[in-house]
Write a structure and sequence with these properties.
By secondary structure, the protein is α/β, with parallel strands linked by helices. The protein contains 10 helices and 10 strands. Strand 1, helix 2 and strand 2 form a beta-alpha-beta unit. Helix 3 packs across helix 4 (about 85-95), helix 5 (about 130-150) runs antiparallel to helix 6 and helix 6 runs parallel beside helix 10. Bound molecules: zinc ion. Zinc ion binds near residues 127, 193, 195, 267 and 268.
Length: about 290
């Protein structure tokens, strides 16, 4: 009897390990989607975050180690709206094994003026995560993909997603409440690069961007002069820098206009420390903006 029990244990244990415990491997290329995947997947998933908080997703290029991880992932989550110019490399790495989901492509885009040297053209604004409504949409997309991958875990994923969606609703209420401290005519946002279009639309701000699309753009002198005029005319009290951008230009604008330097915002995804979560990012950005413009 003792022998049989031991025999059953030895034979059955590896089977259980293979079917019951193995986690779904997710590769994400957006710090926002890393949080969403962890929240929805819980302990049923292993999330590999390729674009770490505090790094610039516009400049990211996958290394061989990233591609090796992607090759074994069952789900690859992309920010998209043309953010990942290297998507071809990822497709090559995964073959047909893992699903590559362009999350941001599944909800509507705002247009953005893209600056190329001395001319500009309209492109899709990739910064969708500054709308909490879009993060909620992303949550439902990730939930549905996980349900497809592991129908046995459907209840867990649905419950986790509902809890996270409720958190996002609470956060949205907090943001609306904070923004309400600011009269509508004071909701003017001057930042380094044009990352806050979705935020502006959601909460009634007007964006006055210094450069067009890339944070590395330097404004031409004509453009700078026009912006300085516009800032003075609108009576904007403060202008803002962004964590991943050089604050020099914005400080010059502040000096020229008499507006104060309002602080630094998280524009291209989660940061570190207090801005390391979606909630932390919104609370830091919104408090910085509202308190400086009041
Ligand atoms: Zn950006």
């Amino acid at each position: 009897m003792k022998f049989i029990r031991l025999f059953l244990f030895v034979v059955c244990a590896p089977v259980l390990a293979a079917t019951g415990v193995e986690k779904i491997r997710i590769s994400t290329f957006s710090s926002i989607l890393t949080e969403v995947a962890q929240q929805v997947g819980g302990d049923r998933v292993e999330v590999i975050s390729h674009v770490k908080p505090g790094t610039d997703p516009h400049d990211f290029e996958p290394k061989p180690s990233d591609l090796r991880a992607v090759a074994t992932a069952q789900l690859v989550l992309l920010s998209a709206k043309h953010m990942e110019g290297y998507v071809g490399k990822l497709e090559e790495a995964t073959g047909t094994k893992g699903a590559i989901i362009r999350v941001g492509d599944q909800f509507p885009s705002l247009k953005l003026s893209v600056q190329h040297g001395d001319h500009s053209h309209d492109g899709e604004d990739p910064h969708w995560w500054h709308s909490i409504r879009n993060i909620a949409r992303a949550t439902k997309i990730v939930r549905d993909e996980l349900n497809k991958l592991s129908p046995a875990d459907k209840t867990t994923f649905n419950t986790n997603a509902s809890a996270y969606l409720a958190k996002l609703e609470t956060l949205d209420a907090w943001v609306k409440n904070k923004v309400a401290e600011l009269p509508r005519d004071k909701r003017k946002l001057v930042t380094n690069h044009d990352a806050f279009g979705y935020f502006a639309r959601e909460y009634g701000f007007t964006v006055m961007p210094i450069a067009g699309f890339s944070k590395n753009d330097q404004p031409g002198s004509k453009k700078t002069a026009e912006l300085i005029q516009a800032i003075k005319a609108a009576g904007v009290k403060a202008v803002f820098s962004e964590d991943v951008a050089n604050p020099k230009v914005i400080q010059e604008i502040a000096n020229e206009t008499g507006a104060k330097f309002g602080g630094s915002l998280l524009s291209d995804g989660l940061g570190t420390g207090e801005g390391g979560t979606v909630e932390g990012m919104f609370k830091r950005n919104v408090s910085t903006i509202v308190d400086a413009l009041k």
